[in-house]
Design a protein that fits this description.
The chain is α/β, with parallel strands linked by helices and 254 residues long. 27% of the residues lie in helices and 15% in strands. The chain is elongated, with a radius of gyration of 26 Å.
């Protein structure tokens, strides 16, 4: 079989594995054997620098397995001496899978950066002296967006500072912000700002819209190509579960 290799030199968890063991690798986690061996031999021949060189981009080095497991018949018995329970399990290295996925996405020009959640709008508020935090107003705007099927969130803090709110949105990769202000609230308006726009962009500072038009304006921006990422589509090749025969995972580590 092309996709399966029988390797007698493979060793894992010698203190608890009692039978068959297996590892899962991808092209992103382990290099081609021929290419890797040639590069490693060349590196040994050309080893003239006494300092360790940066090999972060060396194709002969992979991140290892992305999933692994095996048979461990006596492991559960450590916690229940009266019963011997045979077990077979597998676990997945989520960090490694995401690292490979991120690297793959960076090679695709039509793919947006990887986001850590699916939130589309971060609702913020700011004000001057005597600022109350506008918690009620932020919750009301979030409710409007939620009722329209738009994924939104806001800071749990009573009086969050505006820079902290922008940082929270940036860390989580949220593409849009809806900004509330005391004067704007009185006028029935809110500001929609697309985050990450370059300097000089006409909408860099955001666009003021009527609160009644908020849902329509947000939807129109979300529908633009590239407004949100396509993480699910980019991970299609990493599907490891059959809906009819789901794989049970264990905690034996990768």
């Amino acid at each position: 079989m092309e996709k399966v290799q029988f390797n007698l030199s493979l060793a894992r968890g010698l203190d608890y594995y009692t039978g068959l063991i297996y590892e899962v690798i991808t092209e992103g986690s382990a290099p081609d054997n021929t290419t890797g061996q040639k590069l490693q031999r060349a590196a040994k021949r050309d080893k003239t620098n006494e300092f360790e060189e940066d090999r972060s981009n060396d194709p002969s080095i992979g991140v290892g397995s992305v999933a692994a497991g095996g048979r461990y018949d006596v492991l559960v018995g450590m916690f229940s001496p009266k019963a011997q329970i045979p077990c077979v399990g597998i676990s997945f290295g989520v960090d490694r899978i995401f690292s490979i996925t991120k690297a793959r996405m960076e090679k695709l020009k039509n793919t947006a950066p990887l986001r850590s959640n699916e939130v589309d709008v971060y609702v913020m508020a700011f004000g001057g002296k005597g600022f109350t935090g506008m918690v009620r107003e932020r919750m009301e705007v979030c409710k409007i967006l939620w009722n329209a099927g738009i994924k939104a969130e806001f800071s749990y803090k009573l009086k969050p500072k505006l820079p902290a709110q922008f940082k929270a949105a940036d860390v989580n990769g949220v593409p849009f912000a809806v900004i509330l202000g005391e004067d704007e609230e009185k006028a029935g308006k809110v500001k929609i700002k697309e985050l990450g726009l370059p300097e000089g962009h006409p909408e860099k500072d955001g666009v003021m819209v009527n609160r009644s038009d908020l849902v329509r304006e947000v939807r129109s921006r979300l529908e633009k190509p590239g407004a949100t990422d396509s993480v699910t589509a980019s991970m299609d090749e990493l599907v490891v579960e059959d809906s009819k025969n789901p794989i049970k995972t264990g905690d034996d580590g990768v």
